[in-house]
Specification:
There is one protein chain. By secondary structure, the protein is mainly β. It is 10% helix and 37% strand. Among the domains are: 171 residues, no CATH class; 89 residues, Immunoglobulins (Immunoglobulin-like, Sandwich), CATH 2.60.40.10; 203 residues, no CATH class. The strands form ten sheets. It has a 23-stranded parallel beta sheet that branches. Strand 54 and strand 55 form a beta hairpin. Helix 3 crosses helix 4.
């Protein structure tokens, strides 16, 4: 991913950063061993400087310190004493967390390669975030991923599964992921001064509020709670109560050049899927995309404080209750406070409740949205718009592309050529103040491109160009699905890889997003020559653009599918878990069985769609919604299993499946188990998959209905199962390309087994029970 700095905002906050003025000491970490005793940090001696040891040594110095951390995974294993706030009036606590108290800069080799892992599963009663930043500390962290923290111990001071910050903290080019708290701030709990630059906060979980970030003042003095975010991505976080993405409670938040997407807030009551801005608080959003978030109310944003929006895009958010699916209010924005907006899109959201549910916006009693002009609001049936209505567009589809990596620090929604938002922003010079558009868009492209700036976070450019391809490399042992970003792409464009002396490799299943800034395609790299290849895109008018050496083919090692579980199981109320999965390999994983197991007696709800088995001519088609994905486990009478099937998990892709369920009496706490099977990519694995499927339906027919499948039908059944397998994979690949990876198909293997059974029914002897 190429990160383009939103320079105006970044410069403004950089001027305020209390960063070290001089670096008097430099420690070079030289071991991944977690040992506070390894604190000599003498470059002439090897293995004498651990990360914990370097921080411990830095804490004892009065001058600023830089700690260089090379590539590697640093698993936290040693429990040491730590002060929550670095202040003697607060008792120390024994914790696995790293505990800086002084002025230091921690520099990694890059977030993809330098990883600090607290190695904590969800649940339990532990105080083990990755980092505690004391009130006395001024810390900068660059190029590091911090993951799998867990703060589930009781404390009146606050939580933070990944980071608990009471001091001054700057995160640059870093990530906080896969962390958990039983209260607030699944990824980060900020009660100090926090700045995020070009960073990722993803897949974190908070049982109460702020799945990604919870921002508040310090409880004892009510200072702090200052949060500044630029060029970042807050994605796929979950909260059991309010604010899946960001919760602002008695703090001040400024966000620019950032996407807040696919977060989930409370699905029963409260709300704020992407953002919750509480009473007496202030939040300013500029060049921000709020997309694909979900909650019972305020699917995108729940506001009861002061909210200011400029060049913001709020779309594809959903308000819907879990316990009452016909209820939901304020799909895009639920306002109970003060909102001022300009050059902003609120369109394409949904709310399940009856009118006035507010698909795009809902204004509470005695509240309204104050327009500063030049907004596009598709559905205003449940929200009064006051103020300056000049240039406002209402009742029209914004014509947005899918959420895609359009050459920016985070995904955005491109505008179609005929979008009513194009060239419809404030005509004043961008960046001139007042109600003018921001000087650049979310991707840091200067406005305007055209006669006037566009409404929303994305400035459309019709210029034909290629900016980047992701992933940038693949193995020559299979297929690799890629996404190309740029501009001026036209439906019907072709994509190929070209290298001198080699045959071109044509992209298959190529799909151009309606916004013309993204393309998805798939290359079959089997036996292709290793080395750098040019990426060539050709529009239907035969004009071409090339990204020289943009893609590298390597000697392939194949797919590497991973899976993990994050979430909370509790005795009262629904439990929510996230199933994380992805592919770290260099080729696509094709046809991946994924098995979820829970104890019997659970009632569950999934927040992802199941695609029915592909229809075949003349075959019986039941109501698939009546066929449960949960089935009994052979030989395990106390367990239920949801056997799923992922047609494709591309190289470098990661996804999230969300579930909620209720614990039956006496059930164990650690209740969800997940495993991924081998991809069906070779004749051997495909044959084994078909044999298991056929054997399963034979057993089901015999034990469930006393029906023996005739030998003469078995070969037909095998062929039919093979046809269905190939159809699921082909349909899944096509759906992935068509949605640019935003809506991958998922199948139920239990439904596939029933589909095979319905294939058998008309082919069994007449003695078969008539009820079949």
């Amino acid at each position: 991913m190429s990160y383009k700095h939103s320079w105006v905002f970044a410069f403004a906050i950089a001027a305020q950063m209390p960063m070290p003025q001089a670096l008097a000491a430099v420690f070079n970490v030289d071991t991944i061993v977690d040992d506070a005793g390894l604190a000599a940090c003498d470059d002439a001696t090897s293995n004498d400087c651990s990360l914990r040891g370097a921080i411990t040594k830095a804490n004892g110095l009065s001058e600023p310190v830089t700690i260089n951390v090379p590539s590697g995974t640093y698993v936290l294993t040693q429990i040491t004493a730590c002060l929550y706030l670095g202040n003697n009036s607060v008792a120390s606590v024994a914790t696995l967390a790293l505990c800086p108290t002084g002025t230091l800069t921690i520099v990694g080799a890059g977030a993809n390669t330098t990883i600090i892992d607290a190695n904590q599963p969800a649940g339990g009663v532990v105080i083990a975030p990755v980092v505690f930043v004391a009130s006395t500390a001024k810390v900068a962290i660059r190029g590091i991923t911090m993951r799998k923290g867990n703060f589930s111990g009781g404390s009146v001071i606050g939580h933070g599964g990944g980071i608990n910050n009471a001091g001054t903290l700057v995160l640059e080019d870093s990530a906080v992921t896969d962390s958990f708290t039983s209260d607030k701030g699944g990824g980060i709990y900020n009660q100090g001064d926090l700045t995020l630059l070009r960073s990722l906060i993803a897949r974190n979980f908070a049982a109460h509020e702020g799945g990604g970030i919870s921002n508040t003042c310090r409880f004892d003095v009510c200072t702090g709670g200052i949060l500044k975010i630029a060029d970042s991505n807050i994605s796929q976080n979950t909260a059991g109560n309010v604010a899946g993405g960001i919760a602002n409670f008695f703090g001040t938040v400024t966000v620019s050049g950032t996407t807040i997407s696919s977060n989930v807030g409370a699905v029963n009551g409260n709300g704020g899927g992407g953002i919750w801005n509480n009473n007496f608080t202030t939040m300013i959003l500029t060049n921000v995309t709020v997309s694909g978030n979900r909650s019972a109310s305020g699917g995108g944003i729940l506001n009861s404080g002061n909210l200011f929006l400029n060049n913001v895009t709020i779309t594809n958010n959903t308000a819907q209750w879990e316990t009452d699916p016909g209820r939901g209010d304020g799909g895009g924005l639920y306002n109970g406070g003060s909102v001022a907006l300009q050059n902003t899109i609120i369109a394409g959201n949904s709310a399940a409740g009856p009118v006035p549910s507010g698909a795009d916006c809902l204004a509470g009693i005695n509240t309204s949205l104050t327009s500063k002009g030049y907004n596009l609001i598709q559905n205003v049936s449940a929200c009064a718009i006051t103020g300056d209505l000049t240039g406002n567009v209402v009742g029209q589809d914004a014509k947005l592309g899918v959420l895609a990596q359009n050459d920016g620090p985070a995904p955005t929604h491109a505008l179609a050529a005929d979008s009513p938002a194009v060239d419809a922003g404030n005509p004043a010079t961008p960046g001139s103040g007042g109600a003018a558009c921001a000087v650049a868009d979310e991707r840091a492209l200067l406005r305007p491109i055209g006669p006037r700036c566009d409404i929303g976070a994305f400035e459309r450019s019709g210029v034909f160009s290629i900016a980047e391809i992701l992933p940038t490399s693949g193995g020559n042992t299979g297929q690799v699905t890629v996404r190309i970003s740029g501009g001026g792409f036209v439906d019907g464009a072709t994509v190929l890889l070209r290298r001198a002396g080699q045959s071109d490799i044509l992209g298959l299943l190529t799909h151009v997003d309606v916004g013309g800034s993204s393309i998805a395609t798939m290359f079959d790299l089997t036996h292709a020559a290793p080395g750098a290849w040019n990426v060539v895109v050709t529009n239907p008018d035969s004009t071409s653009k090339s990204l020289s050496g943009g893609f590298t083919i390597n000697a392939g090692v194949g797919p590497s599918v991973w899976v993990d579980v994050i979430g909370l199981t509790r005795r009262q109320g629904p439990s929510t878990v996230m199933i994380l999965y992805g592919n770290r390999g260099d080729t696509d994983a094709v046809g991946v069985p994924l098995s979820l197991s829970v104890p019997s007696g659970y009632t569950w709800r999934r927040y992802f769609s199941i695609t029915p088995p592909p229809p075949q001519p003349g075959e019986a088609r039941p109501d698939w919604s009546l066929i449960s994905e949960l089935v009994g486990m052979p030989g395990q009478p106390g367990s239920l299993n949801a056997p799923l099937f992922l047609p494709i998990v591309p190289s470098g892709f990661s996804g999230v499946l969300r579930l909620s369920f209720n614990l039956p009496p006496g059930a164990p706490d650690n209740v969800v188990f997940v495993a991924a099977g081998n991809p069906v990519v070779t004749p051997q694995t495909e044959s084994a998959f078909i044999d298991r499927s056929v054997a399963g339906v034979q057993t089901f027919s015999a034990k469930g209905f006393g029906v023996t499948v005739p030998t003469s039908v078995v070969s037909e059944l095998q062929q039919y199962a093979t046809t269905q397998l190939h159809a699921m994979i082909a349909n899944g690949q096509a759906a992935f390309a068509a949605s640019l990876g935003t809506a991958p198909q998922i199948y139920s293997l239990n439904q596939l087994q029933m589909d095979l059974f319905f294939f058998i029914v008309p082919r069994v002897p007449p003695a078969t029970p008539s009820g079949l």
